[in-house]
């Protein structure tokens, strides 16, 4: 049996919430990258768009940046979890995720939940494999 060294790397998006809440945007652990639940904030302006679609695009953009920093991409997603605040938001969310992930087709779960802040309509959590 060979001893395997597993490297653990923390990735930050620069959000002030990471330090405040004690989490990383993503953690590379072994062959996988685990991306924290990501909302639709535009971190350049710290503004939250009003629509589910725009929030989903922003969240997936933030996830893509974290995956790129980790050495992988959306193409290597194996699992996503979508959290929405209303059932009615699923259709708008799926239009965006179908466009961006329709050919990738990771395992997925949709959960209806109560947000931390009312302006948050969608949150996306993801796991990707390193190539």
SS content category: alpha+beta
Amino- and carboxy-terminal Cα gap: 24 Å
Which sequence of SSEs, written as H and E, runs from N to C?
EHEEHEHEE
Helix amount: 25-40%
Radius of gyration: 15 Å
Q: How is the largest sheet built, in terms of strand order? A: 1-2-3-6-4-5
Tally of helical segments: 3
Description:
The structure is a single chain. By secondary structure, this protein is an alpha+beta fold. The protein contains 3 helices and 6 strands; from the N terminus they run E-H-E-E-H-E-H-E-E. The protein has helices at 16-21, 52-70, 90-101; strands spanning 8-11, 26-29, 32-39, 77-84, 107-112, 122-129. Strands 1-2-3-6-4-5 form a 6-stranded mixed β-sheet, with helices on one face. Helix 2 (52-70) runs parallel beside helix 3 (90-101). The longest helix is centred in the middle third of the chain and has 19 residues, at 52-70. The protein is globular and about 40 Å long. The model has no long low-confidence stretch (mean pLDDT 93).
Key traits:
131 residues; 29% strand; single chain; alpha+beta
How are the SSEs placed, and which strands pair?
Blueprint: E1 8-11, H1 16-21, E2 26-29, E3 32-39, H2 52-70, E4 77-84, H3 90-101, E5 107-112, E6 122-129
Parallel strand pairs: 4-5
Antiparallel strand pairs: 1-2, 2-3, 3-6, 4-6
């Amino acid at each position: 049996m060979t001893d395997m060294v597993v490297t653990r790397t923390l990735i930050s998006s620069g959000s002030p919430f990471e330090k405040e809440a004690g989490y990383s945007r993503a953690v590379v652990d072994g062959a996988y990258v685990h991306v924290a639940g990501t909302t639709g904030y535009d971190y350049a302006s710290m503004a939250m768009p009003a629509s589910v679609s725009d929030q989903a695009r922003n969240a997936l953009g933030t996830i893509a940046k974290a995956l790129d920093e980790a050495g992988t991409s959306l193409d290597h997603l194996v699992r996503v979890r979508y959290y929405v605040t209303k059932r009615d938001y699923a259709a708008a969310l799926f239009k965006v995720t179908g466009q961006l992930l329709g050919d990738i087709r990771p395992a997925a779960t949709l959960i209806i939940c109560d947000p931390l802040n009312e302006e948050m309509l969608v949150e996306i959590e993801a796991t990707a494999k390193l190539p």
